[in-house]
Structures are given as C-alpha cells and as structure tokens.
Amino acid sequence: MTRVACLWIAGILLAGVATAQPRLVVGKGEAFHRIHDALVAAPAGGTVVVRAGTYREGTLHITKPVTLVGEEGAVLDGGGDHELLDIRADDVTVRGLTLRNVRTSYSQDRAALRVTDARRCVIERNRFDQTFFAIYLARVDECAVEGNRLHSTFERETASGNGIHLWNTRRVRVRNNDIEGHRDGIYLEFTRLAEVEDNVSHNNFRYGLHFMFSDSCAYRRNTFRANDAGVAVMYSNRVEMVQNRFEDNWGAAAYGLLLKELRDSRLHGNRFVHNTTGLYVEGSARLDAQDNLFENNGWALRLLANTENATFRRNDFRANTFDVTTDTRRASATFEGNHWDRYRGFDLNRDGFGDAPFRPVRLFAFLVERNEPLLLLQRSFFVDLLDAAERLLPALTPDAFVDASPALRPVVL
Amino acid sequence: MLHVFRYHVRDVLRSRWTLGYGGLLLALTEALFRMGSGAEQVLLSLSNVALVLVPLVSLVFGTVYLYSAREFVELMLSQPLPRRALFAGLYAGLAVPLAAAFALGVLLPFAVRAETSKALFVLVGSGLALTLIGCAIAAYLTVRFDDRLRGLGAALSVWLVAAVLYDGLLLLLGTAFSNYPLEAPLLALTVLNPVDLARTLLILNFDAAALLGYTGIVFERFFKTGLGVSLSLLSLGFWTVLPLWRAARRFETKDF
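^ inputs. structure came back:
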C-alpha cells in the first residue's frame, strides 16, 4: 500500500521535472559562472537563475524568450560606459536583479535595461542604482514594469536620464515603482493605452511624470512629490488622471500638474497640496475636473484664456493664496458646486449650496497675472480693500468665472 | 533723564490703553493658536495686524499721550533739567512700553508653545521698528502742532499714506509702466516706506518667495546681500532719527 503511494508520488515529481522549463543556475560553484554563457545555453522558454554576487559582463543581449531571475544580492555592475541588459525578443521576464552604475552619456540614451521591438515583456521587482536611463522601452507591446526601485543621485537635469522611458509603445503597464533622482521619473512619448498606477515619483530633476503625444493613456493613484517642475501632460487626447497626489512642487517654475494642448481628458479625485501652482492649464479643450482637492498652493488653478470648455465640479479649494487666475476677461469655463473656503455666502433654502454666486478670481490675482511684479503688494491693506470692492461690484474680473452654486461644506475629505 | 523715563514708563504702563493693546495682541495670538492654526498661519494673520495696527496705534496713541503729558512737561521745564534729557525721557517712556506690549503680546503664546522661526523674529523685529518710527513721528507732530486736533489729524494722515495710499501709488505705477522692468524702482520704493519694507520682508520669509516668481528672486537676493540689509536698516533708522531730531530741535527752542 505504502509502496504504491510512494511510486505515485515519485511518478508525479518526475513528470513535473520533465515538463518544467529547464533552470540554468549562474554563480560561484554552479554550472555557469557567467550570465552570458547561461543565456546562450538556455533554450527558448528556459529560466536563468542568478545567485548572489556581483557580475561585470558588459552588455548582455537577450534574443529569445527566457526568464532571468536574480536571487537576493545578485548585482549587475556596469562600471559606467555601457548598457547592461539589451532585450530584443518576445516573452522575456527580468525579475529581482540589481542593476548598477551606468554613467551619463551626452551622445546616446544609455539605459541600464533596454527593450526594443518586443511583446509581453515583464520587468519586476528589480533595483536600479546610479543609472543614467534606467528602463527604456522602445516599440514594445503589452509589457509590464512593476515593483521596481529606481534611485539615482546625479547632480543636475542635463546630466541625468529618465527613470522609466516609454517611446512608441502600446498597452504597457507601469505599476508600484518608486523612482527618485532622475530627469523625468516616468516619460511617455508616442505611447498608446499605457496604464501608470500606484507609482511614487519624487525628487526628480524635471518632471515626476512627462506625457507627450500619448493618447488614451491613464494614470491613477500615483504620488508625485517634490519634483523640480512637477508633472507635465502635453499634446495628447483622452488622458485619464484619477486619484493622484501632486505635492510639494515648490519653485519659481514648478507646477503640481501642467496641462498643455490636452483634449477630452478627465481629472478626477486628485489632491494638489503645497505647490507653487497646483494646476496650470494652457490651450486645452474639454477638460473635465471633478472631486479634486486644492490645498495650500500659491495658485490653486491657473486657467489661461486659450483653454476651451473646461468644467470644474465639486472641487475643494482650501487655504490657497490665489484660488483661480486667468489672463483675460474673455476667458470661459464652467464652475459648479465647488467648495471655496473664501466664500462668505448664506444658504436660506438649506440645500447645501450658497444662494449667492462666488467669483473665484480676485482682482489682485487678475492684475498679477498680467503684471507679475505687482505680486509684491500681496498682503497690502490697500489691495485687500480693492478686492473687497471688486467682490461687491465686479467690474474687471472675468464674467464667466462664476460658481453659481458654491458648496457650503467641504466636498472632498 | 532716567527719572523722566522711569516716570513715563510707569505712567504709560498704568494706562489702560497700553494694557489693552498688549492684551488684545495676546488674546489675538492665543485665539489664533486655539482655532487650530499652525504657527505659520498664526504668523501670517499676525503680520496683517502688525502692518496695519502697529503703526496706527503708535501714531495715534503716541500723539494723544504726548499731548496729555503737556502739563507734566511744563512742570518739568521749571526744574533745573536739560530740555534734551526731558525730551529723550519723554520719547523713551512712550516707545519702550508700547514696544514691550507688542513684543510680549505676540511672543508669549509662541514662547509657551516653544515655537520659534525666522519669520517670527522678522515679525517681532518689524513690529518693534514700526513702533519706534510711529512714536518718533508722533513726537514730532505734537511738538510741531499746538492744536491737538491738527496734530491728531496729521498723525492719521501719516498712517493713511504710509499704510494704505502708498500701496495704491505702487499699484498705479506698476500698472502704468508694466512694459518696463519694474523690479529696481519697486525695490527702491519699497525700501523707502517702512510699512512696505516690513511687509516685503515678511512675505519673503513666509516661504512665499517662490510664489513671487522672478520679482521674488530679485528681491530675495537683494535682501540677503549686505547692501540690502544695510539699506533696510538705514531706512528704518532714518525714519526714526529724522523726526526725532527735528522734534528735539523744536522742543529745545519751543516757547511753552
């Protein structure tokens, strides 16, 4: 009875081994000493396991579908002047490796890990330390970049590269990555249907996230903190921006989020906290902004005149120096049911909305938008008097910027 | 001089107005803290008070007080006492208690909470400077005008011009010449008026320099240089010393 059971179990195990993909192990005292040899020897669909140790092997080229797995402490060290992993095949997975030391180049976009012309690649749980460009995807489809940690300490914008760079890609998912000290944390250009979710991009030299010519992409639940210029989303259509945090982007040219030439996009449930400018919108059409929180910004919202048909519903404006500014009286946008901490109205019919409309553009903000040095008069008693007068009898501020039903209680918690 | 100073310090301190002024500031600071604002918010609100209320109180209270001290002055003049010492004691006896009331009213709630910051010192420093200047101008006006009403009217006008209308002038100039680089002229005009100077120093210290963009950077750089610091101090000193000097000269030769 027991013998039969043992045979059964042995049989199952053997069958398992026979059908499992071959595992090639690289490390001291293992079958392979160099990752390169293991990659050459591995069959399509095989797995190469890298034991702990530091490997200096020049650029590794992967040209067939394999899984490259690093164990704890497996480090690929570039020494500086070349790329580390060059992937040109479908179905490649790279997991658990540490890639280190790729120096600045002023003539090429030198990347620690580059994927070109490939489908279904997976790059997960790797570390990138001191890399110029870290992950560079070009002409790829359906890839996943998840749970990586990217950390560089280059000195300035021109000497640093992008953290996760997507160029001409389709259906790429970028999730749960932590990116620091690059030029742009995440960079998308000519990309379609990308999903950027739950990443933290902070202390980068330019943008936390940089979108160019990328339609139908979405980014959700990301945190962009203390980047030199915030986040820029430009020249794209149908972008979905949901539940992100834009924090502490403080400086003369820093924006929580800069939108330029953006059409038919949604901006829902985001938090803009402590930025010089929370949201800057220029030349955009049909922006739909709902349930966002603007708190402690210098300018919560700068809406330039060439923006058409923007709607702002149920947003919350608290403790900003300026709530809304624009540069011309003819600007147009729809404001409805937002909460403004400056609103001093009343609610006789008790429907939760003030009975008198609220004009979010202060006269002073409007003057400053046209003539910046006047900012020096901020907190001046005279300017406060002017503002109060303008609020009673609006003469100069844009007619269209009126919230007819301002909410009396905070709408975003 | 010391006797006169001591007498006046006691007199001013006993005055309900000084106590009320200090108490008001204390209550305001405390209330702002209790309403749940952070130290920075409290400082921001207080800076509005300091810029409007402090010059007003020191000018108006100073004028009223010095007029009412006139009989005392006439009595003292019959004593063998140099006029200069009498005047110095009079001024110090007015300015020091007022400055102390301001400093204590603002600082106590911060001290209790062990909150300090550079902005707090700038606030207290500019409040003290504005007090000294306000009292100096009040001293000049009381010596200049024998008629109390005219003196008080002049004091109010000085406040109105310095704290309110001057900014209107800046706004007008800024708008009229918006096509020209305005930083340097604005900077000069700001340094000239102590109220504006105090306000600018406060904004720059509230982490708001980035908000001010290019202008802010120009101003911040200027006020960090030795030249900026010395010019600011010179301006504040000038507005204290000039009215005091003029007043002292008049006081010495005045026929009471």
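The CA atoms of residues 107 and 124 of chain B lie 8 Å apart. Chain B has one domain: 2-253.
thumbs up if we can close this ticket
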